[in-house]
Design a protein that fits this description.
Layout lengths: L7 H8 L4 E7 L8 E5 L2 E7 L5 E5 L13 E3 L2 E3 L6 E3 L4 E3 L16 E2 L1 E4 L2 E6 L14 H4 L4 E10 L3 H8 L3 H5 L16 E5 L3 E6 L9 E6 L3 E7 L11 E11 L2 E11 L4 H31 L15 H26 L1
Antiparallel strand pairs: 1-11, 2-3, 3-4, 4-9, 5-6, 6-7, 7-8, 10-11, 12-18, 13-14, 14-15, 15-16, 16-17, 17-18
Helix pairs in contact: 1-6
Keywords: 2Fe-2S, Dioxygenase, Iron, Iron-sulfur, Metal-binding, Oxidoreductase
InterPro entries: Cholesterol_7-desaturase, Rieske_2Fe-2S, Rieske_2Fe-2S_sf, VanA_C_cat
GO molecular function: 2 iron, 2 sulfur cluster binding; dioxygenase activity; metal ion binding
């Protein structure tokens, strides 16, 4: 029995698109001692140098392939545990103690990654080709304007394809049913018509004629990083700050494991109101929000890996269709670009 034809577009999407910024882990995961993380098709070694800056290399020594993350931190370098080969944060081998002056010294022999830290999170640029300077990391204002917004990062890992997690956020109607017992999603009609509204960076998928009632809309944005944003109206018992804003990102770890990031945000300037909300969130609301996420996790992890091959979609799924089409278009464009040199 022959194997089914492998779809190269699906293969590219399975490990994540290239030339994008990805959230990889909360900042507190990375200390001076190197750690190893699997993300978007790579095994990464991450550590902090003497100045506290996060550095990232592919977790593979160029000598024999041993994990650099098991080695010793030497400021901006890692020393491989196997034979002591030292690799700088830019991928250049600076020393081969067992054979000084050998041809490996001075070579850029390990893949390096550009790193940024924003909103308590480490971001890495997944470049298709080595670049001296990556494009800027552009994120929604809720994550970058600390004077106007206050946020908490919720990080978790779900045992499912990251694209199922994206579909889940691009499906406002599931909140009306799956989360109907939630204090923040108990209102609104359980029937609705949806429309797609283009934006400068992506699109909004929203219920027609209903706003500020439930989980009424989702925005997808591509600003060199893929993110999603939504708002949930809050009762007065939820404290000051207007609607509860969620900014989400999802990064593939393996085809069956996803790194999921949700920043919970309120629009509040520094002062007693911000302090009140942050206290209320930690002591009363956070557990409720994790309960909602747990409902999502259970459903997604129980879905078969090929669930999207046996769907019967309807009008409420227009946002999912639009998102999938966009991602496939991006993957196809990257494959076409990579094929151009070979064709020439």
């Amino acid at each position: 029995m022959s194997n089914p034809r492998i779809d190269p577009v699906d293969q590219r999407l399975e490990t994540g698109l290239q030339d994008l910024w990805y959230a990889v882990c909360p900042s507190h995961f990375i200390k001076e001692r190197p750690v190893s993380l699997q993300r978007f098709g790579y095994k990464l070694a991450l550590w902090r140098d003497a100045q506290g800056q996060v550095r990232a290399l592919e977790d593979r020594c160029p000598h024999r392939g041993a994990p650099l993350s098991q080695g010793v931190t030497l400021g901006d370098r890692l020393s491989c545990p196997y034979h002591g080969v030292e690799v700088r944060h830019d991928g250049v081998v600076t020393s081969v103690p067992g054979s000084p002056g050998c041809k490996l010294e001075g070579q850029k022999a390990t893949r390096s990654f550009h790193v940024r830290e924003v909103a308590g999170t480490v971001f890495i640029y997944n470049a298709s080709e080595a670049v001296d300077e990556p494009p800027p990391l552009v994120l929604p204002e809720e994550l970058t304007q600390d004077d106007a917004y206050s946020n908490f990062l919720c990080y978790t890992e779900w045992k499912c394809d990251y694209r199922y997690a994206l579909d889940n956020v691009m499906d406002p109607m599931h909140g009306t049913f799956l989360h109907k017992q939630s204090h923040s999603m108990a209102e609104g009609d359980n029937t609705a018509k949806f429309v797609v509204r283009p934006t400068d960076t992506g699109f909004v998928f929203e219920k027609e004629g209903q706003r500020n009632v439930n989980f009424d809309w989702t925005e997808f944005g591509d600003t060199g990083a893929h993110w999603m944003r939504l708002e949930i109206p809050y009762p007065k018992t939820g404290g000051p700050g207007g609607n509860f804003i969620i900014v989400g990102m999802c990064t593939p770890i393996t085809p069956k494991l996803s790194a999921v990031f949700f920043w919970r945000v309120r629009k509040l300037e520094a002062g007693w109101q911000r302090d009140t909300w942050r206290f209320l969130y930690r002591n009363r609301l956070e557990a409720r929000h994790w309960h909602v996420l747990e409902q999502d996790r259970v459903v997604l992890e129980q879905m078969p890996a090929d669930a999207n091959q046996h769907e019967n979609l309807y009008q409420h799924d227009l946002g999912i269709v639009r998102l999938r089409r966009y991602l496939r278009g991006q993957a196809q464009a990257q494959l076409d670009k990579q094929a151009e040199p070979a064709a020439a």
